[in-house]
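Final report, closing paragraph on structural work. Over the funding period we assembled a curated collection of sequence-structure pairs, and we close with a single example.
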Amino acid sequence: MHAEVKAILERVKQTADFGYVDFADINATNALGDNALHCVIVWGDYEAAKILVAHSINVNQKGEEGFTPLHKACSFGHKEIARLLLQSGADPFARTAGDLPFTTARLSGHDEICELIGAYTNKGSDTHLEMHSKHLRALAGSIEKLEKQIDTHCKTDT
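Its predicted structure, as stored:
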């Protein structure tokens, strides 16, 4: 493992959330599923994020409550880190328990990140509504599947 990566992982290991994590692998996670990238994003450490990304850390790792590193960047208002993640393959349509990164940025008051995601996904000015529409369609499909399962289950019990 590269010396710069080791140094970053050692810093991460000094936190309460990662003190027990064996960082033999750059993609090691804590019990909540967060990887080191989640941690350095909370710190706002662009250089550390850049190094971890360059050494193939999983930019789409789902951590606590389903938050990906992009969700963290959106939540904390780290626009340049969000840009780095998007350029490195982060999924702008990844969901937490229900929110897209765009929604996380909007709810956190980081409209400049909303613009970045909108421009990156080529959705234009109605990005927020389009992303929510996609989300609602997915939820409707899930509800429909659940209703069918319940209906099937009820028919077999009678």
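DSSP finds eight helices and no strands in the chain. The chain has one domain: 3-126. We thank the funder for supporting this effort.
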